[in-house]
Specification:
single chain; 548 residues; alpha/beta; Rossmann fold; GMP Synthetase, Chain A, domain 3; eight-stranded mixed β-sheet; four-stranded parallel β-sheet; 24 strands; globular
């Protein structure tokens, strides 16, 4: 039985809500049978359009129940789905479509459709969701999907393209079947195998591999997924959904932590004092340095402060799941202090989104957990993480040379630097291609230092370290920041670093790097080469003066 057979069987027997979404401040729910009805409508349209197994179709829309239904319908008909990010520039989207040549583009709304047509007059035929789902469902359709072999391609997901042209990652039915077994088993540990459905909140775009895996996992097990598609209402909708867990990126968790600490500091008084004493006591206990009154301070802070904060974030939260980028240890410890475990996940699109997952029974802050069952991981040259197993993609779409390079010697070369301890618990250091190599020969992974600085500088949106081939390290800081605050942060951070890693000069760039100005990828990663090109003059100026 394929992974799709399992999902469809689960939906057919689920007379409870399986998907919910916010619409105009109300929550719309659909049972498994109602979702299958939408799938039936979409499959009839796909069949009438003459699409056949192995054809490719692009899916461009914000998250919604209809997105999920159309995705299931396309896969059920054997169509290779190419999910695209609705916030990406039309030029980049057109480049991806020209690469994979979809037969049809399914589009969520007219504005997206018009933007694509303006950027590409020869775009494939575009069908709006409304054209599909305004039809009636066939009365006597077979709901089960077409047969899928493990080697059958299911999707092409384009990588973010931090230093070059995005590549289409092909994932097959075998990749998905293995991954959904792993994620379902891990979430069962979190929920305790109870009979009532898990309550899951979801805001990350389905077009990203990890987000999509969460969607399919929830559809294949006893869970209700509540979809939020408006980031401006995220906090309110999260509270209303009252989830038990949900998938996050480090940026959101950092914003939540910053918001909480700012509010407590503004209120001051006994609450602030208890929070600070409790926080210090918790950190000492983690280091094994507990002082005489720490137990008392922790008990008081938990009863009077931490519990209230925890209930504000989510009274039913069992855990937060975090992936896509390294999470700072202090952020993970902050939520753990509040009684909310943060479970880390590490992986790439090429690994069907996941290589490692934290075990809820044994979370070590700063680590991303052990390799998932059936997957092997080891370190190669420059401590590069190498992976092999049933979760590894068969190759990039129509790129045999790049595929061979990525899968050399039977291992997928992740491009990430890592460390692993004796128990098999992994830690991610940074990206090998991001390494700064000073003219002294010293190698520096920029990400940990950038993370430390951005957390120490009020108002900073990004910090980007520079220094490849240079004599010393400098930085670009974006956001509404004061030079004095940046210098204060450097004065605090630099003494903690070896001499060659210290930042000697900086440039303030008021406009944050973003997807819209082309300096962030679709999933928020820095386009470092392009940043260096755009700010060439400013960077050269940093290296004209004698370093401090």
């Amino acid at each position: 039985m394929s992974f799709l057979d399992g999902i469809f069987t689960n939906l057919a027997t689920a007379d409870r809500p399986v998907l919910r979404q916010f619409e105009n401040d109300r929550i719309v729910s659909m049972s498994g049978g109602e979702v299958l009805k939408l799938v039936r409508v979409a499959r009839a349209f796909i069949a009438q359009a003459g699409l056949k197994k192995g054809d490719r179709c692009a899916l461009l829309a914000a998250n919604s129940i209809r997105w999920a239904a159309l995705d299931l319908a396309l896969m059920a008909q054997g169509i290779i789905v190419v999910p695209l990010y609705s916030r990406q520039s039309p030029k980049e989207l057109v480049g991806m479509m020209r690469d994979c040549s979809p037969s049809l583009l399914f589009c969520g709304d007219a504005m997206l459709r018009d933007a694509i047509i303006a950027a590409c007059p020869d775009a494939p035929p575009i069908v709006l969701f409304e054209e599909i789902f305004s039809r009636n469902a066939p009365q006597h359709a077979d709901d089960m999907p077409l047969s899928l072999r493990d080697e059958d391609p299911v999707t092409i997901i384009y990588t973010s393209g931090t230093s070059g042209e995005p590549k289409g990652v092909v994932l097959n039915a075998g990749n998905l079947a293995h991954m959904l077994r792993c994620t379902s088993d891990r979430l069962a540990l979190l929920s305790g195998g109870r009979a009532v459905p898990d309550q899951v909140f979801h805001y990350l775009p389905f077009c990203f591999a990890g987000s999509w895996i969460m969607l399919l996992t929830c559809l294949s097990r006893n869970a209700t997924l509540t979809i939020s598609a408006d980031l401006t209402k995220l906090v309110d909708e999260m509270r209303r959904a009252q989830p038990e867990y949900f998938l996050n990126v480090p940026t959101l968790l950092e914003r939540v932590r910053s918001g909480i600490t700012e509010q407590i500091q503004k209120r001051g008084g006994i609450g602030l004092a208890l929070f600070m004493r409790g926080h210090e006591a918790y950190l000492r206990s983690r280091r094994g340095e507990r002082a005489g009154m720490d137990s008392l301070w922790l008990a008081a802070a938990n009863a009077l402060v931490f519990r209230k904060i925890r209930n504000t974030i989510g009274p039913k939260l069992k855990a937060l799941i975090c992936g896509s980028a390294p999470l700072a240890v202090e952020i993970q410890l902050f939520f753990m202090m509040l009684g909310i475990p943060v479970l880390q996940v590490y992986g790439l699109t090429e690994t069907t989104a996941i290589c490692t997952m934290d075990d809820p029974r044994n979370v070590e802050p700063g680590k991303v957990g052990p390799a998932i069952p059936g997957t092997e991981m080891r370190l190669g040259d420059n401590d590069e993480i190498l992976v092999r197993g049933p979760n590894i993609f068969p190759g990039y779409w129509q790129r045999p040379r790049e595929s061979a390079q990525a899968l050399a010697d039977g291992w997928f070369h992740t491009g990430d630097q890592g460390q692993v301890d004796a128990s098999g618990n992994w830690q991610i250091v940074g990206r090998i291609k991001n390494l700064l190599i000073l003219n002294s020969g010293h190698n520096i992974a920029p990400e940990p230092i950038e993370g430390m600085l951005v957390r120490h500088i009020p108002g900073a949106q990004q910090v980007v370290l520079l220094g490849n081939g240079r004599g010393y390290v400098t930085a670009i800081v974006t956001g509404n920041v004061k030079r004095g605050d940046i210098q204060a942060a450097l004065d605090s951070v630099n003494p903690q670093l070896p001499h060659y890693k210290r930042v000697h000069a900086f440039h303030v760039h008021g406009e944050p790097f973003s997807i819209e100005n082309g300096l962030l990828t679709a999933n928020g990663k820095l386009k470092r080469d392009l940043i260096a090109e755009r700010l060439h003059a400013e960077i050269e100026e940093l290296y004209c003066a004698k370093p401090a």
